[in-house]
């Protein structure tokens, strides 16, 4: 019974937040609304045309090249790497001189270094997970024998 109440509460909160978001969207000027629609459509197209096939190709390649125990950490790290790279594209891609944002502090950080550090951490965690799995698999198990 408690789980049903929690689910109902979460559904009602999600609906309320969704209505609030739609009200904010409705109050925006028409060009901004169209821009949002185009970005959403572009995101769906980019996902279906780029991201999903890349993940499928990586999955098949990993299945052929890697030992089975490595598949989960490597595929998770590869997917996380793709997400980090896609999210970093707006600040990493070169832009023309007239296309800089109004707020000059937005692009004043070494985003390339930050992306490299994030990717390094992701792959370091994958390597550590593979090593821990190997250590746990190779560790001798002690059997409990009754005396």
Descriptive key words:
single chain, mainly alpha, 147 residues
How would you portray this structure in words?
With 147 residues, the chain is mainly alpha-helical. The chain contains four helices and no strands. The radius of gyration is 23 Å and the shape is extended. The N and C termini lie far apart (47 Å).
Task: Describe the secondary structure blueprint for this structure.
Elements: H1 2-26, H2 30-65, H3 71-92, H4 111-138
Please report the distance between the alpha carbons of the first and last residues: 47 Å
Q: Which percent range fits the helix content?
A: over 70%
Flag low-confidence runs.
none
Total E-strand runs: 0
Number of distinct helices: 4
Rg over alpha carbons: 23 Å
Q: What sequence of helices (H) and strands (E) makes up the elements?
A: HHHH
Largest sheet: none
Estimate what percentage of residues fall within beta strands: under 5%
Choose one word for the global shape: extended
Overall pLDDT, averaged? 85
> Which structural category fits the helices and strands?
mainly alpha
């Amino acid at each position: 019974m408690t789980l049903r109440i929690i689910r109902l509460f979460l559904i009602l909160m999600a609906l309320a937040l969704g209505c609030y978001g739609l009200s904010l969207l409705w109050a925006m000027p028409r060009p901004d609304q169209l821009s949002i629609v185009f970005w959403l459509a572009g995101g769906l197209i980019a996902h279906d045309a780029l991201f999903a096939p890349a993940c499928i190709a990586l999955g098949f390649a990993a299945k052929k090249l890697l030992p089975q125990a490595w598949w989960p950490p490597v595929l998770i790290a590869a997917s996380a790497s793709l997400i980090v790279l896609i999210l970093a594209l707006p600040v990493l891609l070169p832009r023309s001189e007239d296309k800089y944002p109004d707020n000059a502090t937005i692009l004043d950080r070494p985003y390339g270094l930050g992306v490299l550090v994030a990717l390094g951490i992701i792959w370091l965690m994958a390597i550590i997970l593979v090593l821990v799995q190997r250590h746990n698999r190779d560790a001798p198990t002690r059997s409990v024998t009754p005396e």
